[in-house]
Each structure stands twice: as structure tokens, then as C-alpha cells.
Automatic annotation (TrEMBL):
Keywords: Ion channel, Ion transport, Membrane, Transmembrane, Transmembrane helix, Transport. It is found in: Membrane. This is Ion transporter. The keyword Transmembrane helix applies.
Amino acid sequence: MTGPSAGQRQTLRHRVAGLYRGTSQRARRFRYGLIGFDVLTVLIIVVTQPLPPSPVIVVVDLIIGLLVLADVSARTWIEPRPWRHLVRPSTLVDLAVVVSLLLAAVLPANLAFLRVLRLLRLLQSYQVLRDLRRETAFFRRNEDVIVSTITLVVFIFVVTAMVFALQHDINPAINSYLDALYFTVTTLTTTGFGDITLTGAGGRLLAVIIMVVGVALFLRLIQTVFRPRKVRHACQSCGLSRHDLDAVHCKHCGETLHIQTEGES
């Protein structure tokens, strides 16, 4: 029994590439399916993060890990330079998630670092955003707010997982995932009630990171939400890429702009 010929492999590769990059209705449905899968895996990982390991969770982790591995393999296969694709940050993140999910399924203990590593899948939100930006006008119009929100949410859940994993066994104040989430949110909003504090040198260092990075991200989100909306359109003369919604001339150089609108007044 012989395997597929070189011509058959090339045809299959062309068909797979068409699904990932094509413009047909079938390709669009396939990419929307990938977006739905990415969103679903993020939700599952966030929901199961604080739960104790169980046979059901192990099976779900295994299935997600194999599906993500299949997606990474397909994307790498259709690339002209597969090795360059493998060393991209997004690909390395997906491979790290695959390793964490598959190891969690075969190891007798669900190690804390594996549970934190799984949350790297949240970074796939940016890939989802890129695909939706290409597919829908709504995401193009509200890109800044959505990106800032996703960045803040990713930071909150990753840091909460780290707080829970590193402090649960040594800090009597961190008894549940909700305690860790409560500490993270009160810290980055500078509320700081003081009823929960992190212990040890590692805990204090983590608290400093939350205060410095988290507060900056939170303020960035607030700034993005309340500042006047802008439209992205590169000026042909000076290159300024953000303008008022009703701009006719570039504020930087005075060049006449030709911004596409949807007919709104």
C-alpha cells in the first residue's frame, strides 16, 4: 500500500491554504469557525482554571491540545518557509499551550506552572481580533477600545492565575481563585483595602508588577474609552494615520483627505 503521491499532497496543501487564506464563502466560514474555536478555548481555560483536576477536565484539555496542535501543524504546512513560521511568537505561544495541555493530561499531578501556562491561550485573542478586523467594519471602527480591553482582561486573568498558583498553599488569605481575582482587581484599581496581602519575597515582587503594569494598563483603557473617536486613514502627504471622523484636511500638513464613510452625518 502506497501513500499519496507528490501531486496529491500538493493539491491537498493548496486546498488547505485556500481555507486559511482564500476569499470564498467556504473559506470565510472556515475562518469564522476557527475564531469560534479560539474564543471557546479561551472561555474553557478561564472557567476551568480555578477548578481541581478531574477526568472530564483532563479529557477536555487533551482534546483542545490536539486541536490546537492540528491547527498549528496545518498553518506551518502551508507556509513557504515553515521554520520561519515556527519561530513566530504566536506559534511559540500556541506550542507552549499545547505542551501544557498535553502534559496536564498525562502527568499524575496538575502542576501549578502548567495551569498558568495554559492561560497563554488568552494571547490568541489578538489573533482573533486581527481576523475580525479583516472581516467586519465594527472591529475596525472600535479597534483601539477593543485592543485596550483585551490587553487588560488578559493581564488580569494571567496575573490572577499566578497569584492563585503561587500563594494558594502559603497564604491563608488566598483560599480560592475568587480571592486571587479580588486582590488583583483591587490592586490595579488602586483601591487596596488591605484585607488581602501577598506574602514572601516572590509575592511582594508580584504585587509590585501588578501595581506598576496593571495600573498603567487600566489608565490606558480609561483614556481610550473616553477620548474622542478617531478614524484610521493614512495621509498621503505626511503619513498621519489618525483623524477626526469628519476631517476633510489633515491637521498636520493640510493635505486633502479622502476618508471613506458610510454616509453618516
